[in-house]
Amino acid sequence: MADRGQLGPLEFLYDFPYGDKFGHFILFGLLNLFFTLAFLRALPNRNSYRVALAVGLILALAIAAEEYSQLYFSTRTFDLIDLAASYLGVLAGGWVALRLQK
Q1: How many Å apart are CA 24 and CA 47, to the nearest integer?
Q2: Exposed, middle or buried by CB within 10 Å (0-12, 13-18, 19+), for 41?
Q3: pLDDT in tens, the chain (102 residues)
Q4: How far is CA 76 from the centre of its chain?
Q5: Residues 20 and 67 sit within 8 Å (Cβ to Cβ)
Q6: How is the chain classified by DSSP, letter by letter?
Q7: What is the pLDDT of residue 73?
């Protein structure tokens, strides 16, 4: 939706300063939380920290590719601050997942 400039009900994130950064943090934080919890439950005999690290790193690579791809869309802009907010969300989501696992 964002690539086409049609965010619909999520458009409110652009109504206040740095709202899109907040959106990146929440979106990728929740994504990492749910992925990490799923993998921790699917791989119960593995080291929890290694599982969380692997999931977080794979997600971080996908986020970097997605942010870089915005250079090729006229309605999007590449932004290192967006990338940083996304990575902070990944860290927070992974941390929460590990705390919930214990």
Answers
A1: 28
A2: exposed
A3: 555 666 677 666 667 777 788 889 999 999 999 999 999 999 999 999 999 999 999 999 999 999 999 998 887 889 999 999 999 999 999 999 999 987
A4: 17
A5: no
A6: -GGGT--GGGGGGGGSTTHHHHHHHHHHHHHHHHHHHHHHHH-TTS-HHHHHHHHHHHHHHHHHHHHHHGGG-TT----HHHHHHHHHHHHHHHHHHHHHH-
A7: 84
- Which residue from 98, 89, 85, 97 is spatially nearest to 28, judged by alpha carbons? 89
- What the block records as the tokens of 78 is 């590449």
Q: Which two tokens stand for residue 52?
A: 């969380």
Round to whole Å and give the CA distance between 40 and 12: 34
Q: What does the pLDDT read at residue 95?
A: 98
